[in-house]
């Protein structure tokens, strides 16, 4: 009996118009195997994958609204002959657009090993899973990471352990055409490249009144400091895993930003130099020549970490954004949403914040779900002065 030719089909069908952007392109070979599939739109090739058995090709990302697509597919049949089909279709133009932006890091920035990737949307996302599937992370050195939604407009990527030093990272958000809200689509992709610098880490101890600074696991400086004097919560430095967030010289420290306006007992407004922010509740390391007598001896600040002018200047120039900064010895725990307190969450809890409830294996060619069960991961350890727990795992204050 003569073998039947391969049956080759394409969805959307040739000539279709008004195709929804979240419709996948599917090329199927019935009774044969696909040899080649090429899909192009606006002069660029569309990414897709052929199944292991060669029977189907499927586009990987959403389609661009208001765009004409061309498909050419060739399959080999059991009769030893090839069959080729071509087709075109056009996607629907959308009116209600969803926009996204990257809050951190900045394009081309060199950052610390604890740096998160923070993506914000201009409205509440109703299909977080669809958006998360469109977020691709690439890393020159392999890592495991996951996305975590803190609400419907903010999603953050964090690695399971800190980034390896000197890693190149790229975020490609294939958002164009994703139905992110019930009545609208995202209409722009994002493409961000940044670099991880040296492995910096610091530990500030409220009981010893010292701050140790490490580079690549080795202690390089040790400063006398004065931290929050306590007594009330707002004057207690937050305990736990911080990240350095931004730098300013000078910065105005105004208690109005933390709920104590003019007329409030204890109101202050000071200009400080060499300031490095570590939380959103007004905590910085900064120069404090007025508290030199207390540095290394007792805690006298409104919550910030006071340092000598020379120490503060050195730390200011040393720091990247995203450097791990651990505070120990106080009774006020840093909230995960206070600044970039994301490392306060243990790994299992972090992954639960993923819309897809999955960790990702990230490497030079992109990110995909971790296939094997992950070993149990502890929350970041509670160190004394050891750097291993740091490296291997509105202005306010004074």
Structure write-up:
With 398 residues, the chain is mainly beta. The protein is 7% helix and 39% strand. Strand 20 and strand 21 form a beta hairpin.
Low-confidence stretches: 374-388, 390-398
Question: Kindly state the mean pLDDT as a whole number?
Answer: 91
Strand content: 35-45%
Largest sheet: 6 strands, antiparallel
Kindly provide the radius of gyration, computed on alpha-carbon positions and rounded to a whole number of angstroms.
26 Å
Shape: elongated
Give the N-terminus to C-terminus distance in angstroms: 89 Å
Strand order of the largest sheet: 11-13-16-15-31-32
- Number of separate helices: 4
- Oligomer status: single chain
How many beta-strand segments? 32
Helix content: under 10%
Structural class: mainly beta
What attributes characterize this protein structure?
single chain, 398 residues, mainly beta, six-stranded antiparallel beta sheet, five-stranded mixed beta sheet, 4 helices, elongated, disordered C terminus
What's this entry about, in short?
This protein is mainly beta.
Task: Set out the fold topology.
Blueprint: E1 7-11, E2 16-19, E3 26-30, E4 33-41, E5 44-45, E6 48-50, E7 56-59, E8 68-76, E9 82-91, E10 97-98, E11 100-104, E12 110-111, E13 117-121, H1 128-133, E14 135-139, E15 143-151, E16 154-159, E17 168-173, E18 185-186, E19 190-196, E20 200-205, E21 210-215, E22 218-224, E23 240-243, E24 246-248, E25 251-254, E26 269-272, E27 275-277, E28 284-287, E29 305-307, H2 309-318, E30 324-328, H3 347-352, E31 360-363, E32 366-369, H4 388-391
Parallel strand pairs: 2-9, 10-18, 12-19, 20-30, 28-29
Antiparallel strand pairs: 1-3, 3-7, 4-5, 4-8, 6-7, 8-9, 11-13, 13-16, 14-17, 15-16, 15-31, 17-19, 20-21, 21-22, 23-30, 24-27, 25-26, 27-28, 31-32
